[in-house]
Amino acid sequence: MADNNTLDRNETQDMISSAKVEGTAVYGRDGEKIGSIHHLMLGKRDGKVRHAVVSYGGFLGMGEDYFPLPWNELSYDEERSGYVVQRDADQLRGGPHYARDHEPVWDRAYEAQVTGYYA
Amino acid sequence: MADNNTLDRNETQDMISSAKVEGTAVYGRDGEKIGSIHHLMLGKRDGKVRHAVVSYGGFLGMGEDYFPLPWNELSYDEERSGYVVQRDADQLRGGPHYARDHEPVWDRAYEAQVTGYYA
């Protein structure tokens, strides 16, 4: 992890800014770019990131799909300046996802669906 | 909490989108607007929100100060469409803060300073 002299102003050894996480690229195990993190879903009571929602596909913001991933699927790769997920691209694209304006109700059933797929 | 028929697309009974949290107004105990949430600081390993960084003051983005608050200081108030902190404005303004481009190193010492102030 970077030492204090090279720390990005939005990072520290221990913490990272949500503004920096949003928009960060996400790569699959084979190095292919999956998409980028669009936003995070946070548990209201415990303030814990339940899912990182990765946006994928589309053109100029149109036609994008959104793929929720459990937070612990992501590992930051300094060389790529992005997150790596230890999954193949096909496996990721087969995961739960939704189109813009078709957001699911984020209830326990949906959360279990996401967690179950990546278990 | 809102039922499924009135759920905002970025919310659910259990979770909230980081994109929605960012920019939300923050009010003190007396109803005075403190500022708005600029971004969140997340623990990298556990993905837990350590601080909500509230921006306050300034004009057109200039001269703003940033005040980290522990996540558990915030309660969402449906009527105000914003977060309420059970502190007086003076107490909040006396808390740890920094100016734009003078971000602290987010190490354990700084985190302890923030947590200690709001203990």
Automatic annotation (TrEMBL), chains A, B:
<protein>
    <submittedName>
        <fullName>Photosystem reaction center subunit H</fullName>
    </submittedName>
</protein>
<dbReference type="Pfam" id="PF05239">
    <property type="entry name" value="PRC"/>
</dbReference>
<dbReference type="InterPro" id="IPR027275">
    <property type="entry name" value="PRC-brl_dom"/>
</dbReference>
<dbReference type="InterPro" id="IPR011033">
    <property type="entry name" value="PRC_barrel-like_sf"/>
</dbReference>
<feature type="domain" description="PRC-barrel">
    <location>
        <begin position="14"/>
        <end position="92"/>
    </location>
</feature>
